[in-house]
Design a protein that fits this description.
This protein has one domain. The chain is mostly helical and 241 residues long.
Length: 241
């Protein structure tokens, strides 16, 4: 597959399937799990490949739960992602992957720590716009843009979280891919491999859709926080290694 060893493709495929399952359950997770693994085994595919896969999973989830979307929140968060995307594309060109990974990892861990301490962050135009900017930066630079928005929505109904994040991810990923294309950071290998792994995304998403209705709301919030924390730790380990 365009010079990528098949054992590496198999590893990425397995993680993709698990990530699609997690995202189908809690609303995010594919990029959080796939990006660090891809960065360690085939760095040239980051951030493009995880973004292509995120486009697939978010699009499929949106079709299934679009009636629960919080369009009012997205009206503030999505436009704010555009300037964040410009900054993220610039960071990809100017800074090392390690520097970006450390900054994003620390940011997410701090956000989770604040949330666990029961500090309530109001969901309002200012916080939504700020989260949109940060998601644009981190999503374009590292392909991990979910935690800022997910942390704001963690106390909402699971179906609202999943559907709203799906719209945010889908449209946000499109913006990020356009930004990367403009900076010359997209490769044919990334979308070729994305198409190859599409069936595994579908399998994971279907399995998650079957399992998620059995998950209590408190467990849902815990799952969101754990996935955000795991992604941040994985980014830090990746940068240090």
């Amino acid at each position: 597959m365009d010079g990528v060893p098949w054992d590496v493709v198999a590893l990425i495929g397995a993680v993709t399937c698990v990530g699609a399952f997690v995202q189908s359950v809690v609303g995010l997770g594919l990029g959080l799990l796939v990006a660090p693994v891809v960065a360690m085994v085939e760095p040239s595919l980051v951030p493009a490949l995880p973004l292509w896969l995120a486009l697939l999973i978010s699009g499929s989830m949106l079709l299934g739960e679009r009636r629960h979307v919080d369009w009012g929140a997205l009206a503030w968060a999505l436009p704010a992602r555009v300037p964040g995307t410009i900054v993220g594309a610039w960071l990809v060109v100017r800074f090392s992957d390690q520097a970006i990974a450390v900054a994003i990892g620390v940011m997410v861990l701090v956000a989770v720590a604040v949330t666990v301490r029961a500090v309530h962050v109001p969901v309002n135009p200012a916080s939504l716009a700020a989260a949109g900017v940060v998601a644009g930066v981190s999503g374009t630079a590292t392909s991990i843009g979910g935690p800022p928005i997910a942390l704001l929505f963690q106390r909402r109904e699971p179906e609202v979280v999943r559907s709203t994040l799906s719209v945010f991810f889908f449209l946000g990923v499109v913006v990020s891919l356009v930004g990367l294309a403009g900076s010359g950071s997209l490769t044919d290998t990334s979308w070729h491999l994305g198409l190859l792994l599409a069936p595994l995304v579908a399998v994971g998403a279907f399995a998650g859709s079957v399992a998620r209705d059995r998950l209590p709301r408190d467990s849902f919030r815990t799952g969101v926080l754990l996935v955000c924390s795991a992604s941040a730790l994985a980014l830090l380990v990746q940068a240090l290694v």
